[in-house]
Write a structure and sequence with these properties.
Blueprint lengths: L2 H12 L2 H7 L16 H8 L7 H12 L11 H8 L6 H8 L7 H7 L10 E3 L6 H10 L3 E4 L9 H9 L3 E6 L4 H7 L6 E9 L5 E6 L11 H7 L2 H13 L10 H28 L6 E3 L1 H8 L3 H5 L4 H12 L3 E3 L24
Parallel strand pairs: 1-2
Antiparallel strand pairs: 2-5, 3-4, 4-5, 6-7
Helix pairs in contact: 6-13, 13-14, 13-16
Length: 356
């Protein structure tokens, strides 16, 4: 799907009767049926722009961008926004994320719910937050190849992994204990012990990592190949950084559960839209493989256009402008370049604007 089609389809979805059906909160079944100054498509589009300022400033800026004006436009109050978003269901924006093949809920639960999207031709790459015996059993049952980092600090984690670390071996085939009975019932996974392969990986900084996989063929998948494979997940960490710092994930627009779920889902979707736009800009400009679009500039360039793009106004023209613009702001990506972070206070804002 082209970027023009994606934004066009997303705009059509925001205006559709189907989205309205899912968007109204169960306590407000007739919400968004009357014409308001902040109708449903505009409300959601505003939240998808990556709100980082005060609510009133974001509202005034949103309508200024929508009207193609440099001066801020006061059309809707912050109180009206709060009343409208209270009538928006918990699932509305996560459903849009799901439409873009994104995810929500807890990490392990959302992974389990999306395993059916994978096939035996895919390889699932996981960090240390995911390993569990039931997950290994579920992946083996589905025939999904995986590689996950499994070493833990201290005496936690798998006993066989601690023994492997002490052994000094480069790789070893081991057997995990059977999953807990409760997990077998909850996740409908096999109750038998699972055989896996452990691979030792030494990071450039000397840190020892242990990778667990169900790829046993040492000829097709030598131990040395897993280092480059694991490095591919670094872009996931970059995604977390963008959400936390550039999109100020913890600077929420409300402190209710409803507001926080909506904000997180909206910023995840905002990041996906920026990523897809950056990818299209790279391809359209025919840049070299080592050139990367500056994602910080991508946010700055795309945000003023998102109100019109998300509401289906002059999509093709606006996208051509932003793709040409961001393609001029690139940097050269250097493989295996390590820049350790210096200990310092986190730059993202607190969850509320007050220190409790």
């Amino acid at each position: 799907m082209s970027l023009n089609s994606l934004f066009g389809d997303l705009a059509a979805r925001l205006h559709s009767a189907e989205f309205l059906l899912h968007a109204a909160h169960p306590d407000h079944p007739s919400a968004f049926t009357r014409q308001r100054k902040l109708p449903l498509p505009a409300l959601v589009a505003l939240m998808l722009t990556g709100m980082r300022k005060s609510i009133q400033a974001e509202l005034d800026e949103f309508f200024a961008h929508l009207n193609n004006q440099a001066q801020l436009v006061r059309k809707v109050s912050a109180q009206a926004f709060a009343q409208a978003r209270a009538k928006l269901s918990l699932s509305a924006i996560p459903l849009l994320n799901d439409w873009l093949h994104s995810v929500h809920e807890s990490e392990r639960q959302m992974l389990f719910e999306h395993l059916d999207r994978l096939s035996g031709r895919d390889l699932l790459l996981l960090d240390r937050g995911y390993p569990a015996r039931w997950l290994v059993a579920a992946l083996n049952q589905r025939g999904i190849p995986f590689c996950m980092r499994v070493e833990k600090s201290g005496n936690s984690g798998f006993a066989c992994v601690r023994e492997f670390l002490r052994s000094g071996l480069v790789e070893q085939v081991v057997t995990l204990r059977a999953p807990e009975r409760r997990d077998v019932i909850d996740f409908e996974c096999p109750s038998a012990p699972q055989t896996v392969r452990l691979v030792r990986h030494i990071a450039p900084n000397g840190q020892v990592r242990v990778l667990m996989t169900n790829l046993f063929d040492a000829v097709r998948f030598p131990a040395g190949s897993f280092a480059d494979l694991y490095q591919q997940r670094w872009r996931i960490e970059e995604g977390f950084k963008r959400l936390k710092h550039r999109l100020n994930l913890e600077h929420v627009s409300g402190l209710s559960q409803l507001a926080m779920v909506q904000d997180v889902a909206a910023k995840v979707l905002c990041d996906h839209l920026q990523a897809l736009t950056a990818l299209s800009a790279h391809d359209n400009a025919d840049l070299s493989q080592s050139a990367r679009i500056n994602r910080a500039y991508m946010h700055t360039a795309l945000k003023p256009l998102l109100p019109a793009l998300l509401l289906g106004k002059k999509v093709a023209k606006l996208l051509r402008m932003v793709l040409r613009l961001v393609a001029t702001h690139t940097y050269v990506h250097q493989e295996n370049l390590s820049k350790p972070r210096k200990p310092r206070p986190k730059p993202h804002k607190y969850m509320s604007q007050k220190h409790w």
